[in-house]
Give the backbone structure.
Amino acid sequence: MAARKFFVGGNFKMNGSQETVRKIVASLNDAKLDGTNEVVVAPPAIYLLEVQRQLVAPAEVAAQNCFSEESGAYTGEISPSQLKDAGVHWVILGHSERRSMFGDTDKLVADKVRAAIANGLRVIACIGESLEEREKGITKDVVERQLEAIAKEIPASEWSHVVVAYEPVWAIGTGKVATVQQAQEVHADLRQWLSSRVSPEVAQATRIIYGGSVNGKNCGELAGAPDIDGFLVGGASLKPEFIDIAKTVKA
């Protein structure tokens, strides 16, 4: 089985201006990424096309969300076919902020994943438990439930289009980071779940990345865990240290 290519995603969330986004793109272009790691950045939707035009390969662009329908009376939404038409090849789906603030249920996230893949997009599918759920000892139940919804909607052959992002909600933007042991434990459980629920081949090939206050100081240690295949970076993706994270060497 070939080694899983390390993946680093940068989620700008609802941050940035034309000027700051241009600076981030320029710094990525100047970094001369060599393609060892797969690097994808997700600016706010209003800047997607500009970033798509300016960003130099091998870095790519992702949307932060899309809808599950092709077209219609869905004010404020973007369809996966529109993203594909615009040359955007990745989309983040199921982020905890979408789930908690905008009502994205497990089923809706799964429907979005199915629609995105059907339109030729690749998906960063986010899962993760709240602090309350971790303290109750039900982390495994929560993340497996979230993945099960997706597994019901896509066949084994389509998991090659999915990167799973484990983001403990209590670590997002809080400065708290799951210990390497905590993160590795969940990632290993997720890989075992994929093996039994989908197939051993899918489990070995699927990249499971970590998100939750990843920065230039802790990325190296986290990358040392055998089942952490990359990062989904939030706040640090807006800072110069994102380049260091993007160039993380998998131990």
